[in-house]
Specification:
The complex is a heterodimer of chains A (292) and B (801).
Chain A: E1 8-11, H1 15-25, E2 29-32, H2 38-43, E3 51-54, H3 59-62, E4 65-67, E5 71-75, H4 80-85, H5 87-92, H6 94-101, H7 106-111, H8 114-120, H9 126-133, E6 137-142, E7 145-150, H10 151-154, E8 155-157, E9 160-161, E10 168-175, E11 180-187, E12 197-206, E13 209-218, H11 228-234, H12 241-254, H13 265-287
Helix pairs in contact in A: 11-12, 12-13
Chain B: H1 34-38, E1 54-60, E2 66-72, H2 74-78, E3 82-87, H3 88-93, E4 98-100, E5 106-108, E6 114-115, E7 121-127, H4 130-137, E8 141-146, E9 175-182, H5 184-192, E10 196-207, E11 216-221, E12 228-232, H6 237-248, E13 255-258, H7 274-286, E14 290-293, H8 296-302, E15 306-317, E16 323-333, E17 362-370, H9 387-405, H10 409-416, E18 425-426, E19 432-433, H11 438-449, H12 451-463, E20 467-476, E21 488-489, E22 492-493, E23 496-502, E24 508-512, H13 521-533, E25 540-543, H14 561-588, E26 595-598, E27 601-604, E28 607-613, H15 614-622, E29 636-641, E30 650-659, E31 666-676, H16 683-702, E32 734-737, H17 755-771, H18 786-793
Parallel strand pairs in B: 1-14, 12-13, 16-17, 24-25, 31-32
Antiparallel strand pairs in B: 1-7, 2-6, 2-8, 3-7, 4-5, 9-17, 10-15, 11-12, 11-14, 15-16, 18-19, 20-30, 21-22, 23-24, 23-29, 26-27, 27-28, 30-31
Helix pairs in contact in B: 9-17, 11-12, 13-14, 14-15, 16-17
The chains are: A alpha+beta (292), B alpha+beta (801).
Bound molecules: flavin-adenine dinucleotide (FAD).
């Protein structure tokens, strides 16, 4: 059994309470949500926080999937499993179910959260790519109020986000657009493994052309959000295999993966292309009612 | 024998309860041990808690190769909950810094002079609780002087390579041993005149047994009696006791080893690891019970690895596909200490069976083993002592030959299989295969697979650019070590004792020397006894894993339990039955010759109404009244069984894979496994063993490797890096069997525990390589991860080491 270094532990009774604790305890304190990123690091003693602030009691404040006319709002403490199971979410954003099916395993999904995933900001983490493709915005709160930041401002680099000391992520907001759909593809060495690479695409159709499209990539380089040339290449283009291939090339050109035990840089670059093509193809098929 | 085997079309399902029969003997029945396991009530080493027990944690080296300059333990000693901090220097004062390995090498318990692999044991802390022990490790200050590490096995013998084993007197290189088998000149002669020869380097990467339960022990030295009780994760309790007695100088009768439930071993719990010795020393030193339980990383990075062979294979054949000779040259990476767990006369285990299932004219192997700055090991990870490597070599090579000859690999194998009338068959490397009838097994696998139809489907798919592969392996295993004239471990002959006692009411207890790690001994051995004496398995207690209360024997590994201890159990039961027959003759007042045995009772020949059951006899044996002249009371016996040969199970495996042309992901679509392990005791348990081994094979073939960076850092220290396949990666296994009993085993049984691990990797690799045939690929090395397959498709295949 791997055992963590000593730490103090407190259960927050409200978001305000959690924030107050963080302000008081400073950078020696860490929030624990699902714990499936933080606790393994603590057990390996790669992380040795002095205080843990447990937010798992804040279900009322932080665990929800709410739909408005033009937006879905997801609380930071929403579990992977809830994202996987929500039929309403899958109807509008099928990319969530695509991705959640291949994130970790049921044990991890029962506990791991959307907020924890985004705040961990692991370059191989899938939900960031999903949120990026969907143009999500993140709500960050501190004792003086809250601010809303875009995904590419939220992610500052590997394991680094816009959430400062004394702050927490409370909600993710995703715009709902008509005539739109999305899809996600991942290559892993084994079920439950982190991605060798993955790609998610979201498209909005205007008749026969793609009015707007985005691709989010994962595990193919640091901080790969909002690849603008991809969106530029897709705008107002009729969908075609040539277009997907061209966009795939752009994805590959923007990827800067490293060779590791999951795969060579060349292979991951190839996947950036291949998975971009596959997810675009599927997203368009879904948006145009042609998915088989 | 009563075989309550369901007919072929009756497959056990949860509804038909076919696994839940109640045979008095062989047949399907649920495992007796499972009620406690499925309810989480197993008792493992780490569940053992004794009053006043302390906890031990080990400090490990961050370097692969470094001289130890100094160790400062003062801060750790000052920790309020720490009871002792021990270094190699302190052990050396008592002559305990080094211990023997199972291969007559030595291994450091705690490093004294230098560290020789990353994560080597350097010091230990004993504290009041597990957390404090671990915390205190951070307070030990070790100064290292890093040395050049030897990581690339191919460079280990370079003249300028650093010398790892300078502890061995006069050692001037990293050579560990050379080993040869077969006839070099005869083999060369066949190669000289062969129409076709093929040659291919292939690598069996370093892998790890990675059992669910890591290694652990609780050492308790009783101050009053001077007796050491050691609860330990061991597959071989008796052998361990003797080794501890020899190392620690404790008298053997003052050592009791208890192996409680074990959560998987796969060979990894055969060696003695420094952690066990440290716990014993700590208990001696402090006079309290001490627990050591390694964590997952420690298990993966420091306990016995398996394989790590670079093999150059060669086949000489005729143009029409007659295989004439097999030759191989092997470079074996043994890590920092030679810790191979094999019978001593077999430094390469049973690799000598690399001649496979084929009738050859000649064969030869030359092997050089070297030391590197990596963890020691070379354990029989479900491999029957290196047969996994041997079978991989020959079965991969046969496919290489099929590629060269453009011949169907099934046809090529069928053409070369040893014929039934040739058994017992002596191979060109001196192994005597006891029995076999190979072709029907191969044909059965092909029929189950629909082989011809699969080839047609493949041809159509290739037309469309789809990548489908069909891979075959036909293997012969050599299990049940072994005849004591040839086989011993550190001088201990590999024979097994067994003791059977029938209680007065006709219930029984059978005591075994072997130790189950999940193989189902409590069921299988009860069934063996039941078959012989007619007492239902549920009335037979199988007792094992406690050296004070079981007869001596060498333990469970290399699929030896059923071949050796299973034979012992059958024979001891026959001995008891012989005595029962004499008592029955007295009870029925007829001569022994006039008695007839119907499983469970003796009756008078010709008058079945006059009979006594084994239970009646047991009561008589213990009860009042006279027994026949010269017969003692009681109904029990003990024997020690020395096998006359190994047993040679075999099988034909066919694997079907689909490879995604875009992502190079390999999907194992079907896997057909037809095994022949001779007489089947419990078909359900056999299938369970096969399923586990096949899953293991998928792991090795597609995803696993213990790898290192150039500084010798182990990159596979967690199960996020070292992947264990799950139900998601494997198909519904399609199993079948043929039955060719072993002629020398009392019930005709052969081992089955490792067949599937041995036979499946080549079938899977052959299937993937077959799928890649359109790319002109003849060979690709494991692990066939998507990335490695894709690189091969680009023409960039690189060996993993
Ligand atoms: C075996 C395994 C396999 C996995 N496989 C995958 C995979 O394939 N794909 C994938 O994407 N992920 C994978 N994960 C990661 C998993 O999804 C994690 O649960 C997730 O990344 C983190 O969520 P959490 O709620 O567990 O976060 P925690 O571990 O609790 O926290 C992670 C970090 O975020 C911070 N944090 C958490 N919530 C907030 C908040 N509301 N505001 C500010 N900071 C916060 C914490 O302080 C901590 O630093 C895997 C994990 C495991 C253990």
């Amino acid at each position: 059994m791997q055992v963590p270094a000593p730490f103090e532990y407190e259960r927050a009774t409200s978001v305000d309470h959690a924030i107050a604790l963080m302000e008081r305890l400073g950078d020696e304190a860490r929030i624990v949500a699902g714990g499936h990123s933080l606790l393994p690091m603590m057990k390996l003693r790669l992380a040795m926080p002095e205080y843990l602030i447990d937010i798992n009691d804040l279900v009322d404040e932080l665990q929800y999937i709410r739909f408005t006319e033009d937006e879905v709002r997801i609380g930071a403490l929403t579990r992977h499993q809830q994202l996987l199971e929500s039929d309403e979410l899958a109807a509008i954003f099928p990319i969530f179910r695509d991705a959640e099916k291949v994130i970790a395993d049921p044990v991890v999904r029962n506990k791991g959260t959307l907020g924890g995933s985004l705040c961990q900001a692991d370059p191989s983490e899938d939900l960031s790519a999903v949120c990026d493709a969907l143009e999500a915005k993140c709500v960050i709160r501190n004792s003086s109020g809250q601010r809303v930041v875009e995904m590419h401002d939220f992610h500052r680099g590997p394991y680094e986000t816009a959430v400062e000391d004394g702050e927490m992520l409370t909600e993710v907001r995703i715009p709902i657009k008509p005539n739109s759909s999305s899809a996600y593809h991942k290559v892993e060495r084994r079920a439950g493994d982190w991605a060798v690479a993955s790609a998610g695409a979201a498209v909005t159709m205007n008749g026969d052309v793609i009015a707007d499209g985005r691709v989010g990539l994962c595990a193919v380089g640091p901080n790969l959000t909002n690849v603008q040339p991809i969106s530029d290449a897709l705008r107002n283009q009729p969908p075609s295999e040539e277009l997907y291939a061209r966009v795939g090339e752009i994805a590959a050109a923007n990827a800067s993966p490293a060779t590791d035990t999951r795969g060579t840089a060349a292979y991951k670059t190839h996947l950036a292309k291949e998975l971009t093509i596959r997810s675009l193809r599927k997203a368009v098929a879904r948006a145009t009612g042609q998915e088989i | 024998m009563t075989v309550t085997e369901p007919s072929a079309n009756q497959i056990p399902t949860p509804d038909n309860n076919l696994n839940d029969q109640k045979p008095t003997g062989f047949g399907r029945m649920l495992r007796k041990e499972d009620p406690r396991f499925v309810r989480g009530l197993g008792q493992y080493c780490d569940d053992v808690t004794l009053p006043g027990m302390l906890h031990l944690a080990i400090l490990r080296s961050p370097y692969a190769h470094a001289r130890i300059v100094s160790i400062d333990t003062s801060a750790a000693e000052a920790h309020p909950k720490v009871k002792a901090v021990v270094t190699g220097a302190m052990l050396a004062e008592h002559g305990l810094a080094w211990m023997p390995t199972l291969s007559n090498d030595v291994q450091a318990v705690l490093a004294t002079d230098k560290v020789r692999f990353q994560h080597q044991e350097v010091a230990f802390v004993v504290a009041e609780d597990r957390y404090s022990a671990r915390d205190a490790l951070e307070l030990i200050d070790v100064e290292y002087d890093p040395l050049d590490p030897v990581i690339d096995v191919r460079k280990a013998l370079d003249p300028d390579a650093a010398i790892i084993r300078d502890d061995l007197e006069g050692k001037t290189d990293n050579h560990c041993f050379n080993w040869q088998t077969g006839d070099d000149a005869a083999t060369q002669a066949v190669f000289d005149d062969a129409e076709v020869t093929v040659k291919q380097e292939m690598i069996y990467p370093r892998v790890h047994p990675a059992p669910m339960e890591t290694c652990a022990c609780v050492a308790d030295l009783d101050k009053v009696s001077g007796k050491l009780t050691l609860w330990s994760t061991t597959q071989a309790p008796h052998a361990h006791r003797t080794v501890y007695a020899l190392v620690a100088g404790l008298p053997e009768h003052k050592i009791r080893i208890i192996a409680p439930d074990i959560g998987g071993g796969f060979g990894g719990k055969v060696p003695i690891y420094p952690g066990y010795v440290c716990a014993i020393v700590a208990s001696l030193l402090i006079g309290k019970p001490v627990k050591w339980a390694e964590d997952r990383t420690e298990n993966l990075v420091s306990t016995g690895f398996a394989r790590d062979y670079i093999m150059i294979g060669e086949i000489a054949a005729s143009r029409d596909g007659k295989i004439r000779a097999v030759r191989t040259n092997v470079l074996a990476d043994h890590g920092a200490f030679n810790g191979v767990a094999s019978p001593v006369k077999y430094p390469a285990g049973f690799f000598g069976v690399f001649t496979g299932s084929y009738d050859l004219e000649a064969a030869f192997c030359n092997m050089d083993a070297v030391f590197t700055n990596k963890a020691p090991g070379g354990v029989a990870y479900a491999c029957s002592f290196r047969i996994t490597e041997a079978v991989y070599l020959v079965e991969r090579m046969v496919d290489v030959l099929a590629y060269e000859l453009d011949m169907d690999p099934a046809e090529l194998r069928l053409k070369n299989l040893i014929q039934p009338e040739q058994f017992p068959y002596e191979t060109k490397t001196g192994w005597i295969y006891d029995s076999g009838d190979y072709e029907p097994t191969m044909r059965k696998a092909m029929a189950m697979a629909g082989y011809d139809e699969l080839r047609r489907e493949q041809a159509e798919k290739r037309e469309r650019g789809e990548l489908m592969g069909i891979g075959i392996s036909f293997f012969t295993e050599a299990v049940g070590a072994g005849p004591r004239k040839d086989m011993d471990i550190l001088g201990l002959g590999m024979a097994d004792g067994c003791e059977l006692r029938i209680h007065p009411t006709g219930k029984a207890v059978v005591r075994l020397s072997v130790q189950t790690q999940g193989q189902g001994h409590e069921t299988t051995f009860a069934q063996i006894v039941a078959e012989e004496i007619g007492i239902p398995p549920e009335d037979i207690e199988v007792f094992h894993g406690d050296t004070d209360n079981t007869p001596f024997g060498l333990g469970t590994y290399g699929s030896r339990s059923t071949p050796v201890s299973g034979a012992a159990a059958a024979l001891v039961t026959r001995k008891v039955k012989d005595k029962a027959q004499i008592i029955a003759s007295g009870m029925l007042e007829v001569s022994v010759a006039d008695l007839q045995w119907d499983k469970g009772s003796f009756s008078v020949k010709g008058d079945p109404t006059k009979s006594v059951t084994i239970q009646d006899i047991a009561m008589k044996a213990h009860g009042a009244g006279d027994l026949p002249e010269g017969v003692e009371g009681g109904l029990e016996a003990q024997i020690c069984y020395n096998p006359s040969n190994l047993t040679y199970p075999f099988g034909a495996y066919i694997c079907v894979v689909d490879v995604d042309p875009g992502t190079a992901e390999v999907k194992v679509r079907r896997f057909i496994a037809v095994d022949d392990c001779g007489t089947q005791i419990n078909p359900m348990i056999i299938e369970g063993q096969v399923h586990g081994g096949l899953t293991d094979g998928v792991g090795m073939a597609l995803m696993q490797m213990i790898n290192f960076d150039e500084d010798g850092n182990c990159l596979a220290g967690s199960l996020m890096d070292y992947l264990i396949p799950t139900a998601m990666e494997v198909p519904d296994w399609e199993t079948g069997h043929t039955v060719t009993p072993s002629p020398h085993h009392p019930i005709g049984a052969k081992g089955i525990g490792e067949s599937a691990t041995v036979g499946s990797p080549p079938a899977i690799v052959n299937a993937v390589v077959d799928a890649l045939k359109p790319f002109g690929i003849r060979h690709a090395d494991m692990p066939l991860t998507p990335s490695r397959v894709w690189e091969a498709m680009q023409g960039n295949h690189t060996p993993p080491i």
